[in-house]
């Protein structure tokens, strides 16, 4: 799937972004969700990669991971796209 980049204003955690596009006259809508995951939630593991993998695996299956943002010492930002209904 081709990708495009869209500059967004500051988005708070747990907010959704709706993107509507028109392709050859046909409108399509895509929904995205930004989540800020604090590393302090990784109490069971010091391995951040393993902890993040668990968070993603347990996330609502109606949403697909699209991007893992740059991590800081305190948190990491995750972006999910809503899976279209079958």
What is the element layout, followed by pairings?
Layout: E1 16-23, E2 26-38, H1 48-58, E3 63-68, E4 75-82
Antiparallel strand pairs: 1-2, 2-4, 3-4
Summarize the structure.
The protein is mainly beta and 86 residues long.
The largest beta-sheet arranges its strands as 1-2-4-3
Low-confidence stretches: none
Rounded average pLDDT: 83
Strand content: 35-45%
- Sheet with the most strands? 4 strands, antiparallel
H-E order: EEHEE
Instruction: Tell me how many strands there are.
Output: 4
Q: What helical percentage do the residues reach?
A: 10-25%
Please compute the radius of gyration using only Cα atoms: 15 Å
| Shape field | elongated
Question: Helices and strands: which structural class?
Answer: mainly beta
So how many helices? 1
Q: Separation of termini?
A: 18 Å
